[in-house]
Amino acid sequence: MSNCFEVTQGAPLPLGSSVQNQGVNFALYAPNASQAFVCLFDKSGHTEILKIAMNINEGGVWSIHIAPLSTGALYGFRVDGEYSPEKGMLFNEHKLLIDPYAKDLFNEFTWSERHYGQMPIGTKSVVNNAIDMPKSKVTAPVAYSNNKPQQSWANTVIYECHVKGATCRHPDIPKALQGTFLGLSHPSFIEHLKSLGVTAIELLPVHAFISEQFLTAKGLQNYWGYNSLNFFTPHKDYLVNDDINEFKQMVSKLHRANIEVILDVVYNHTAEGGNDGPILSLRGLDNLTYYRTIERQPNVYINDTGCGNTLNIDHPKTLQLVLDSLRYWVEVMGVDGFRFDLATILARSNTGFSASHTFLQAIAQDPVLNKVKLISEPWDIGPGGYQLGAFPSPWREWNDQYRDVIKRFWQSEKGIISDVAKRLHGSFDIFEHSNRGPLNSINFITSHDGFTLADLVSYEQKHNQANGENNQDGHSANYSFNCGVEGFTSDPEVMSLRLQQQKNFLLTLLLSKGVPMIAAGSEMAHSQGGNNNAYCQNNRTSWLAWKDSQRNHTLIQFIDDALKIRRGHSAFKHSVFLDDIDERFTVKWFTEQGKKMDETHWHEDTRQFLMYSLLDKQNKHALLIILNASKQPVVCQLPQSPIIAPWTLVLSSVNNASSVIQEDATVNISAQSSWVFSANLEGDDYD
């Protein structure tokens, strides 16, 4: 069979497979291997038709050029060398490996004992695993050429969603497109996004991923996707015709609607798991290059992720792999930014987290990556793992302190209004010390992880029995409340209070300084039945229902109304924190009597009421925001409007709230309610 091909030395760059000179060049980094092979497969992916030894180059890169060969060719790598698990050496020629630079994969991954290096335990496996492995597929990537929205952070409103869960039950989307990339770009879904006023969707992981074996053994799946198999390939279950270009089609259509695409990316660990995990790709190429191990114990992985392994970003080639992947998704696939799962891991070396870590420096100087949106999840379970506020500009950070304090406030916790005020105005105590501003905070109440917004006000206990872990998984500190009944109820008073509390959360979120993020389903009161860790629920627990009552839910209009107010006041776009000497913007805090708050008011243990005004002196526009988390109504004296125009009610969480302000400017503020008044010399217009 090799006589059919012309085989030459090949080039060490670029890594992976690339179409060159009527053939395909293969390049692979495996510096400690004794020999590397490229293996070609027939069109079915079942039969290995050729195994050719590659040539070693300077720097530990193996290469070979095979002609004639073109796009669509199926291949994998085999790497031979020392197999000594106690030394962290796991070379095994019998294991077919996925090209870490593969842009496309063919056929499915199947769990079997053939993937393991030792079988039985203590004996090197000589079983070929190719039958159970997806094959890498040669592609010829073309750069993304359409215009991008380039939304400023000041205008950004993020909608976090799951590719499948967002549309797989949407009745107006053709069945074949439901739950796919093309489903997200269908006019019906785009219209929904536009009706909310969001400017970016943040997609849960779309890199090729697999379910952990312990889940498949229980008949469950990894639904969220935080278990990467490959950093370049779109997850094939989200394609209609097995065409990776469908992802670019989605991006292009969303861009035309002025909606950006942000990817939730997992570069902290891979699906190869812990010491007892399978050999699928990086582990078989050079285990000690790609994974962090305990010093002087190369057989023991550092597990700062809780998933068995931790990627070794300190190694130049691992760092290159991550950066090459990021650039590919920007330059070829067209995305606008990334949210980095467990981002502290990427900036941690043996001496701990550093804001000047090589990874952060590399992105800062990269002419492609330093122009996209960068969001960190600034915590992990490793040493010094909580780093909120420590990332350098221009990074944005998920602000869990915002999330928890706002939850506690509307839970009617007392004595925290000082903390609430800090979160409402951009968390200056967290970000200002490093010359960052309020727009560095990604504010959110709920996300994919934890209770949904509807469940946050319907359950006080997690109900995760369906996950098969005896309800021991998921967070226990949810700061949730059930409004008097645990779970489903038809009691109209309880249902009314739950809706009002959801509006309270949304109004607070969307009118806080910072960048707001809404979890998909919040706008239609989606419930997961109290499951606060639905990572393995690839079913109706997680999928948005899109019933008529949900598609026309009152929360959709409420979000749109709140975002119109946000867009209409420039203070929310201001990139620096407001202070007493700001020439344009003023913030003032008031008591229930409409008087300025003093130091004693801020330290009242029983206070659950906040009223403050935001004045834009340039545009002569003021907002008055009132938040009453108390279970008792408050008779409130509105402060004098800072401009000539009177206060007008523009939004309230209370149904049928009267817009009439009594002559003496008093308003009855209902228990557990939120209100927004506006004064504008030019007249209020939020359309």
Automatic annotation (TrEMBL):
The source's domain of life comes to: Bacteria
Q: Which CDD domains match?
A: AmyAc_Glg_debranch, E_set_GDE_Isoamylase_N
Give GO terms for biological process. glycogen catabolic process
Hydrolase keyword on record: yes
**InterPro entries assigned to the protein according to its UniProt record, in alphabetical order:** GH (IPR017853), GH13_cat_dom (IPR006047), GlgX_Isoamylase_N_E_set (IPR044505), Glyco_hydro_13_N (IPR004193), Glyco_hydro_b (IPR013780), Glycogen_debranch_GlgX (IPR011837), Ig-like_fold (IPR013783), Ig_E-set (IPR014756)
This entry's Gene Ontology molecular function terms read: amylo-alpha-1,6-glucosidase activity
The EC number on file is 3.2.1.-
**Keywords from the named record:** Glycosidase, Hydrolase
Q: Is the Hydrolase keyword given for this protein?
A: yes
Q: Which residues form the Glycosyl hydrolase family 13 catalytic domain?
A: 156-566
Q: Which family does it belong to?
A: Belongs to the glycosyl hydrolase 13 family.
| PANTHER family associated with the record | GLYCOGEN DEBRANCHING ENZYME
User: Per its record, how is this protein called by name?
Assistant: Glycogen operon protein GlgX
